[in-house]
């Protein structure tokens, strides 16, 4: 059993932050000139790298905060501000990747796709905040893990079938989805800050 409500909350938040539809044009740009087999390899390697990083922070994030003597409300406010920056980037549009990155022989699945484009500051902070809300409840632990896994499966699917998707929804469709994601993410960021302020005032 798992907490379905917590799963939906975590999944929607992570989905909006990591923005699988919005990663399509970047994936295509960074894998341009590569064979279909190489693109398929990058399509699964990048989500795996991001998943490992996100799980790492979900498990040890609270310990790091404890070591730094950072309280939950402070993390929520910082997370809200970081998410707002990500939302503004989505609303204003992503910048094009540098040409040297596309021509480089390094594994783009690690950098920049795996991190920081997928497992970036916003996703890491959101993961730590959700992990703090778990409070040892098994149902929420399972829900959070499943939500993280589901989002990364979506990332793999969008990148795996990126060429087909881009042909169907066109550039304008990707742009529209990215803008809507930015709007939703900005609301989530503001709500995080409001919750943190309420906690501080109540204490």
Considering the chains and any ligands shown, give keywords for the structure.
203 residues; 9 helices; mainly alpha; single chain
Query: How many domain regions?
Result: 1
Low-confidence stretches are none
Helical content class: over 70%
String of helices and strands: HHHHHHHHH
Task: Describe the global form.
Answer: globular
Largest sheet: none
Let me know the average pLDDT.
86
Compute the separation of the termini in Å: 33 Å
How many individual β-strands?
A: 0
Question: Count of helical segments?
Answer: 9
Structural class: mainly alpha
- Tell me the fraction of residues in β-strands, as a range: under 5%
Query: How much is the radius of gyration in Å?
Result: 17 Å
Q: Explain this structure to me?
A:
With 203 residues, the chain is mainly alpha-helical. It has one domain (4-202). It contains 9 helices and no strands. The chain has helices spanning 4-18, 20-30, 36-68, 72-92, 99-103, 109-118, 121-134, 138-160, 162-202. Helix 7 runs antiparallel to helix 8. The radius of gyration is 17 Å and the shape is globular. The protein starts with a helix and ends with a helix. The model has no long low-confidence stretch (mean pLDDT 86).
